[in-house]
Amino acid sequence: MKKLILITAFVAALTSCADSYVIEGSSSVPQLDGSKLYLKVIKDKELTSMDSCEVVHGKFRFSGSIDTTQMASLYMDDQSIMPLVVEKGHINIHIDNAQQKVSGTALNEKLYDFLEKHDRLNNQMRELDHRYSQMLLDGVDEDEINRTLTMESSVIVQQEDSLVSDFVVENFENVLGPFVFIQMSSSVPQIEHIMSKAPESFKRRADVEEFYKIATGDENAD
After folding, report:
1. What mean pLDDT, rounded, does the chain reach?
2. What distance in Å separates the CA atoms of residue 198 and residue 216, rounded to the nearest whole number?
3. Contact 167/180 with Cβ under 8 angstroms?
């Protein structure tokens, strides 16, 4: 009997551990020290705090149990700092003046690998403005500058479109696909392209349906 109780307790402990998350963070940003941070999720179309903690000497920690993996955002008061996936396991957050990064679990690793690639494309696009000014100073004809930079801009836009579309398609069946689809789809053709490939489970999500209707101007559709 005692052996059976021990086995039951061991199984319960494993189950509890499997359904839990631990988020440990570090920050070198002075403004965050002493601040209250909140882990917020969308629940019933409302932004709701699921956990909170204080930053002490650049360190902070969240922990708890979850029934299902979900997208969340890290907030300081009403200011959103960064997205993350609350999933089973040990999650690490690092914040400094140069970057914000989440690692340690599969979906967070995948999300931040994607975000880093997206940021690189954004940086390339911003660099075009500097190149425009430099080419003017170098005496390049303005029409030639516009032709050159327009072509380069089109290539970057296409790369960004493909990056977002491919990522959503690859993640239809987890929380990353809907999140990136809603947050980063930039045109109706891109949205229609993604939806043409989507399974019914993705199309029938309430948040995806609502976004699709608004983005395509079909709010009154049944």
Report:
1. 90
2. 16
3. yes
